[in-house]
Each structure stands twice: as structure tokens, then as C-alpha cells.
Design a protein that fits this description.
single chain; alpha+beta; Arc Repressor Mutant, subunit A; 4 helices; rod-shaped
């Protein structure tokens, strides 16, 4: 049973509870067991509306949790697809990947940084050419740009940047 099913069930339970309590109070009014509308409204509010609001709130919490999990699954799937396409082809353009994955190029860029951060990708990014190039760790030199051959400068942990062509190189971590 997923969170969406639980959310819908609690919403329905809240509505059924409110309807049942309202019917109970209305039947008490019709049979003359309740004197006036005051006790009826109070009864519906305390025994119908408040529990129904509780069930609705619980349902909303489960609904929100379902949305969070769906978004996380979508993000994982996107990273898997991106990594699979880049590693299979070896060279991919940002815009083409974005079109294939049906996302914006900025989303592809963020997903690339995610897979680099998880140490699942080695290679480099040619920013002026908007291209991702996968390379085996053994092929990447720590001192020369794989795009233009210029000297690269360390730009962070396991990352270097070429000052000549703006290529960003994702270096393999030393073991």
C-alpha cells in the first residue's frame, strides 16, 4: 500500500465520519431528542467536523509524502538515464540529452553534478561546446586538458578547470 492510497483512504474516512455524525445529529433533531439547532450544531462541530479535519490533515500529510517520494524516484531515474546515455555514447550534447530526457538543459547540468558527486562519472565537460564527454579514469591526466591540451588548474576536490577553453574535468579519486 503506497502513501497515495493511505491519503485517499483517510480523506474518504473523514468524509464518511462527518456524514455519519451529521446524519446521527439530524436524526436526533427529527426525533425530538435534541432541543433546537444549538446542540445540533455543537454536536456536528465537536463529533463530526473536528475528527473529519483530523482525518483530512493526516490524509494531506500522506499525500505530501507520496509527492516527495515520486519526485525522488523521478530524480534517481533521470540520473540513471543520463549516466547510461553518456557512458554508452561517450560524447553527448547538453541540449540533445535534455530533449531526449524531456527536461531543461539546466536539469541535465544539475543531474550531471549529482552523478559526479556520487563518484559515478569520470570525464569532462566542454562548456563552450555544451558537451559531456565520458572517459575511463586511466585516460584522464591530472595536468592536461583533454579538450585543448592546455594546463589545467585544480578547481575543487577531484575537479579541475582549463583556463583556456573553460572545460571542466572530473578527475578520478586516488585510491
Amino acid at each position: 500500500m503506497n502513501y497515495r492510497t493511505i491519503a485517499v483512504a483517510t480523506f474518504v474516512l473523514g468524509l464518511v465520519w462527518l456524514g455519519g455524525m451529521t446524519a446521527f445529529v439530524v436524526s436526533g433533531l427529527r426525533s425530538g431528542q435534541l432541543d433546537g439547532l444549538g446542540p445540533a450544531i455543537l454536536g456536528i462541530a465537536f463529533f463530526g467536523l473536528i475528527p473529519a479535519l483530523f482525518f483530512g490533515t493526516v490524509g494531506a500529510i500522506f499525500w505530501r509524502q507520496n509527492n516527495i517520494e515520486q519526485r525522488q524516484r523521478r530524480d534517481v531515474h533521470l540520473r540513471e538515464e543520463l549516466l547510461q546515455r553518456v557512458m554508452t555514447r561517450g560524447r553527448c550534447k547538453f541540449d540533445e540529452l535534455a530533449q531526449e530526457l524531456r527536461v531543461k538543459p539546466k536539469v541535465v547540468e544539475e543531474a550531471l553534478y549529482d552523478v559526479v558527486g556520487m563518484k559515478l562519472f569520470t570525464g569532462y565537460v566542454n562548456w563552450p561546446g555544451r558537451e559531456i564527454i565520458a572517459m575511463e579514469a586511466e585516460q584522464i591526466s591530472g595536468d592536461k586538458c583533454p579538450n585543448c591540451g592546455g594546463a589545467i588548474e585544480l578547481a575543487g576536490k577531484s575537479m579541475a578547470r582549463c583556463p583556456y577553453c573553460s572545460t571542466q574535468v572530473f578527475l578520478p579519486l586516488e585510491k
